[in-house]
Amino acid sequence: MKRIGFLVVLVICLMLSGSAFAQGDNSVYFVTYYANNVSGAPDATVRFINDGDNGYLCADFYVFDDSQELQACGACYVSVDGLLSEDVKTELTNNTVTGRVPSRGVIKVISDFFCGNQDSPDPYPGLRGFATHIERATPTSGAYATTETRVADSNLSSTEETLLGNLCYYSGLLGSGQGTIACTTEDSDF
């Protein structure tokens, strides 16, 4: 009987402290990859939804090639309970700072309170993301398979936040209009 009483007290203490149950997801930084971003392959897609808990948000995109070089960046508006869908080939990598379309790389996204300040992000939770990945069915065939997964929640250090903002700022200066992402209107890709 003492064991049951102890367990009840323990559960109540954990519930009151907030440790027993999640109090919401405060993720603000996400990463995913893209591959087979080539002619003849289907287009991969990155989708973000706004859970509506914190009002209107933006998805700050930072697109890198497989040499860890920033190729494009930009901020896309996501309304409350909205769905943003960006194609990797036609919207995220079609206007790179180098002028070449990378075949594979990394996409980083910050959930931001303000739109248009991807050079100086203001991380704010509320976005949830998913990405499709294009994989070759076999090494010798021209067939491709598509899978979809959640984007990975990551830890955003102040150093990484500053670095991403600075890279985006300088790519805008050096690119003279290249290296920017043209966001689509929500739900228009479906």
- Kindly name the structural category: alpha+beta
Q: CATH class, please?
A: Mainly Beta
On the 0 to 100 scale, the average pLDDT is 87
Query: Span from first to last CA?
Result: 59 Å
How many helical stretches? 3
Order of helices and strands: HEEEEEHEEEEH
* Main beta-sheet strand count, sense and barrel state: 5 strands, antiparallel
Rg, Å, rounded? 20 Å
Strands in their spatial order, largest beta sheet: 4-3-6-1-9
CATH third-tier fold name? Hypothetical Protein Tm1070, Chain: A
| Fourth-tier CATH superfamily name | TM1070-like
Return residue spans where pLDDT drops below 50 for at least 5 consecutive residues: 5-24
Q: Percent of residues in helical segments?
A: 10-25%
Overall description:
This protein is of the alpha+beta class. It contains 3 helices and 9 strands, in the order H-E-E-E-E-E-H-E-E-E-E-H. The protein has a single domain, classed as Hypothetical Protein Tm1070, Chain: A, CATH 2.60.290.11. It has helices at residues 2-17, 88-92, 158-175, and strands spanning 29-34, 45-50, 57-65, 70-78, 83-87, 105-112, 127-136, 144-150, 152-153. A hairpin with a 4-residue loop joins strand 3 (57-65) and strand 4 (70-78). The radius of gyration is 20 Å and the shape is globular.
List the helices and strands and how they pair.
Elements: H1 2-17, E1 29-34, E2 45-50, E3 57-65, E4 70-78, E5 83-87, H2 88-92, E6 105-112, E7 127-136, E8 144-150, E9 152-153, H3 158-175
Antiparallel strand pairs: 1-6, 1-9, 2-5, 2-7, 3-4, 3-6, 7-8
